[in-house]
Amino acid sequence: MSEYGIQLKEKQKVKYTYGVLERQFRNTYEKASRMKGQKGENLIILLESRLDNLVYRLGIAQTRAAARQLVSHCHITLNGKVCNIPSAMVKPGDVVAVRERSKSLEVITESVASAKKYSWLEFDAKALSGKYLTTPVREEIPENINEQLIVELYSK
User: Fold this and answer.
1) What is the C-alpha separation between 25 and 31, in angstroms, rounded?
2) 62: closest CA among 91, 95, 105, 24?
3) What is residue 25's three-state secondary structure?
4) Which of 18, 67, 87, 97 is geometrically suited to a Cys-Cys bond with 129, CB 3.0 to 4.6 A?
5) Are the CB atoms for 132 and 88 separated by under 8 Å?
6) What are the pLDDT digits (tens) for 74-95?
7) What is each CA distance from 51 to 10, 38, 98, 135, in whole angstroms?
8) Please, are residues 119 and 130 in contact by the beta-carbon 8 Å criterion?
């Protein structure tokens, strides 16, 4: 496979993993390139800061697609207000919670039981709410991504 093919495959893998379409991904990359620091790390951090991804990481949903659906069907609140935009950027200190009338949903109760813990997130299983403490460091993100290939692809 050519060098371009390897880079493209890596980009497609990240797009598929986070459930992002091409235009959203491109806009996120451009936003990451305007930030201070390394472009690749900034891209991954921005993708991790999306509301649908945080719902998945907190363990409220089993998959990112399920998290996206929970958000778009108004089951999730962001800082006490209902938010139905899966791509909403969450800032450190924001509180992500399950809406009161949605707490009894079987999908949510099953996935909370098997939730993993992350150092940049704090989750209260009884209240079904979590707090985004800090932006994660690249080493803390468990995804197997070579973000340098994506940077090289877009720098052409």
Assistant:
1) 10
2) 105
3) helix
4) 97
5) no
6) 999 999 899 999 999 999 999 9
7) 23, 23, 12, 13
8) no
Q: Residue 128 carries which DSSP code? A: T
Beta strands in the chain (DSSP E): 76-78, 81-82, 95-98, 121-124, 129-132
Mutual angle of helices 64-72 and 51-58, in 10-degree steps: 120
Cα-based torsion angle of the residue sequence 68, 70, 72, 74 in order, rounded to the nearest 10 degrees: -150
Specify the pTM: 0.89
How far is the C-alpha of 21 from the C-alpha of 35, rounded, in Å? 21
For residue 44, which of 152, 130, 139, 153 has the smallest C-alpha distance? 139
Residue 138 is encoded by which pair of tokens? 């690249």
